[in-house]
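For consistency, the fold was encoded as tokens, which produced the following:
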Amino acid sequence: MENLQTTSGTKTVNQQPINMVAGIINLISLPEICIRINTALEDPSHTNAQLGEIIAHDPAMAARILRIVNSAYYQFPSKIEMVSRAISLIGEDDLRALVLATSALEVFDRIPNQLVNMELFWQHSVFTGIVARLLARQCNVLHTERLFIAGLLHDIGKLVLYYKEPEISQSVLRQAAETSGIVHQAEQLQLGFTHADVGAALAQAWQLPESFQTIIQHHHQPDKAEKYEIETAIVHLANTIVNTLSPDIPIDENLLDAAADFNPLSLQITALDLSTLADIVANAQQQTHEVLNIMFPMY
């Protein structure tokens, strides 16, 4: 496979992930409702009622949003029955995040994939996103919903790779399994880039904020992030924790085993108190089951 590279300033940019995403962007473009919500949010004169009307045109989306707003994810004291009321309570950033999260599932549910168990993929992704959101709260980071989305999408490049390069991806997975190695390192050896690079290219094609592109690209190597260092570090920590557990594994001393794999810079940047991990993960496990049942009922 040709490995194209271009030089921009002092940096060498691998063009192949960008070309890979560009080759299937029609297949993996965001749904119309996601685009309409983003367009409406850019209009300074928009109202919650207008946003609610847009979402009402997609009853499945409206139902998911109301169920999430009424779940343990938000823990509001009384039931919310109108989308416009939900928006006023959770805020526009959270609305954008929930619409994007649901849209991401819809996009990749259209793509046949024989190399991954999609139920386990989304379970890992949602669990990572929720742990990242809770870690962000612990670290006093603002707008924590961004971290849920970044965590949810951190491995999205894998799905593109599995679809576009199934044979090489199968070889990568086999190499990682046979050598007890790490998948992204095997990808770098065989492809010259990783699923993180592909995921960042997709985030760029979807015109997601630069912060998402950076977090996704560097979630395995947060020390390489030149911007959004704390956000990247949080998603790295969340992913490392979730790789050690699952929503169904009881929390025990194995949780602290994950700390051995944390990038030291991530702990330094976040100043995370490791003694809080068990409570954070227990909370995340409860929320993950509920969010999965709401957002991904087919799994």
